[in-house]
């Protein structure tokens, strides 16, 4: 398995901590943010951009879709692989992007991170 | 002469029967709860029942259109004019002006009366008041929409701790199966994951308890288990439980309370009120300080929880204590939207009151007044 650097964005502190812990146990590097704005600020401060972003949809201040738009509008961050995590209902919009439906099993989480990492490395 | 006399008496008899028929017809028209009117074949009014005069306050035989709301007048006129040409019945829903100037929704039905040969001879119109029914219908629709939104939010809220639990348990299984890890590492990791899993179970339990409370509050009065309680102690305990959560959210938590305020309250329920208020203060507090204050009054204790966060618009303030209501979108702020409703129900069951003072961007202060001896009320 290739270790990935992950920016994990979720407003739920428990969930963010749980995902971060299992990803770290699996050998990945994890940085966490609790809303889109925090994630953008963190990205701006990073010397090396993460391999991928795992982003919750419903968050205060700036939600997952708004973060996606902000990344697309920024030449430096455009094209950063992003996986949306949602506990909401399925929709055509969500089906059009890489996403994980909560509750996310550990296997699905690790498999998605590994797959996105491999695709990026190709 | 005898023949003329017989004809006269037959005419008188006929007129008597006709008059009786007419009277019966009008009595019938007055007996129904609707407005009823008649018009000749050209549309000129010939009769209005008593309900028309009682409702509209109109005087004399005027066209039914005089009471129609200006917004629906053109459509009513168009239907009526078309009917006068093609002699077809029609229906239209319009607002009708009452004698006090208010408008109520009515269903207007107009049918043509025909003679034995099928020729149109007159018009009969009825106006049925639908206002209460339409209002109840709108309220029912709103209640259903709010309930559906709530179910969607509830399922989202239950999934979040469930997700955390699932991932922690999966992580624990991987840890235990990982041959590369030493026993102390496995033990340390598992211990941490079990602690986290228990926290998630606690959160799930709180959600399920809230859902059960809502179901219970809807069907029966809240029963309190009153005992001697030191409210100052309860407040400090709940604040202590929130220190970590508040710190993670960037909020400093300060409490100002006397050593003791003793009264007869339901300890668990009062804790619940305090928990819900603090949980909101952290959630909507934008990382600003939160102040909790407890004071003793003559016959009541006064608790306040003050944050400096997003605040609540004045228009939203009256409904935030209602079931399923929330001032902000569930898209951006999680939670069942039940906390303040539960808090209000508990406070009111104690004979107390809960209030909010707030303006957008300036935070919110929730104040709870709890009578020291609720059963004395």
How would you summarize what this structure contains?
The complex is a heterodimer of chains A (122) and B (377). Chain A is an alpha/beta fold and 122 residues long.
Biggest sheet statistics of chain A? 5 strands, parallel
Tell me the overall shape of chain B: elongated
Number of strand elements of chain A: 5
Q: By helix and strand content of chain B, what is the structural category?
A: alpha+beta
Count up the helices of chain B.
Answer: 8
Which percent range describes the beta-strand content of chain B? 15-25%
| Helix-residue proportion of chain B | 40-55%
Class computed from helices, strands and strand pairing of chain A? alpha/beta
Calculate Rg of chain B over CA atoms: 35 Å
Q: Beta-sheet strand percentage of chain A?
A: 15-25%
What does this entry look like structurally?
The complex is a heterodimer of chains A (122) and B (377). By secondary structure, chain A is α/β, with parallel strands linked by helices. Chain A has five helices and five strands; from the N terminus they run βαβαβαβαβα. Chain A has helices at residues 13-25, 36-45, 64-72, 92-95, 106-121; strands spanning 5-9, 29-33, 52-56, 82-86, 99-101. In chain A, α1 (13-25) links the parallel β1 (5-9) and β2. In chain A, α2 runs parallel beside α3. The longest helix of chain A is centred in the last third of the chain and has 16 residues, at 106-121. The mean pLDDT of chain A is 88. Chain B has helices spanning 2-31, 50-56, 70-86, 131-177, 183-219, 231-248, 267-283, 339-349; strands at residues 35-40, 45-48, 90-97, 103-114, 120-129, 227-230, 253-256, 262-265, 290-296, 300-306, 353-358, 364-371. Helix content of chain B is 49%, strand content 21%. Chain B is elongated and about 130 Å long. In chain B, the strands form three sheets. A five-stranded antiparallel β-sheet of chain B has the order 2-1-5-4-3, with helices on both faces. Chain B has a five-stranded mixed β-sheet with strand order 7-9-10-12-11. Chain B has a two-stranded antiparallel sheet with strand order 6-8. In chain B, β3 and β4 form a beta hairpin. Classes of the chains: A alpha/beta (122), B alpha+beta (377). At the A-B interface, α1 and α5 of A face α4 and α5 of B.
